[in-house]
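Notes from hallway chat w/ T.B., transcribed later so I don't forget. T.B. wanted the structure written out for a chain they're using in a teaching module, and asked if we could keep both sequence and structure tokens in one place. Agreed to drop them here.
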Amino acid sequence: MATDTAPETGTDPTDEPLYVDGTADLDEIVAGNDVVLADFYADWCGPCQMIEPVVEKLAAETEAAVAKVDVDANQQLAASYGVRGVPTLVLFADGEQVEEIVGLQGEDQLRSLIERYAE
């Protein structure tokens, strides 16, 4: 009997967070999806760890693709979006940045934000 623990090739990329490695990676995700929630985070950040299960759930249950951007590994990318604190969540719709939220957010707030832009 198959389990869901092993990643499959060819699965819908929006079902789980996509880990970003550089500007080109994020640009490709934004260009390839109608709605993208980019989670700028750091491993040492307590609120980032608290929001991670929420972000993973939104990736699985909404139309949005979720991109995870480690600010320590992608300092220039974070700076280009003006990220000064983590977690910072940036929402893209149709290739354009439409929202930016700094700090810990609840699932309901983030879900309604995504649904506002998802069609």
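Follow-up for T.B.: The helical segments are 23-32, 46-61, 75-80, 107-117. Might be a good example for the class.
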